[in-house]
Amino acid sequence: MHLKKGFTLIELIVVMGIITIFSGLVLTSLNLTNGHSQLKTSFQNTKNFIQRAKIEASLRQNNERRGIYIDTSNNDIILYSGTSYATRVTNSETVNSLAPGVHISSVLIAGSGDDINFLQRTGETSNTGSFTIYNDSGSYQFQINSNGSIEATYFSP
Question: Which of 32, 56, 94, 132 is the most buried (most CB within 10 A)?
């Protein structure tokens, strides 16, 4: 009797197929994790940016009001000094760009269009409203109340 050592062609093809399937699952999982990480980072940065504008207005830094402008065309949140984005002090802007693949939508701000301006000393605003940042892994809806507080809700895809 003659025994051959090794694997048959069918066995090799089956093993290669299984490895390919597992590789695809791992890569898909890593891609979703990366997307969620980018969304979470953009959420935290945006929340901190809004809080910074409110705090700076409350402290009356440079005796100017502070606000944020929501730039949907560039996916940026811009911190500015002044009573509105249109009349801002142009050399005082700070830009918070969202992570690649994260976008801004559904901007609904009372009375001002795309900017929220915080009052000196109190940090309150009459520009209440909401906006959403999103990517393929989910979305966060920000709600800004009249006292300047921020509420955010996560929605999975």
Answer: 56
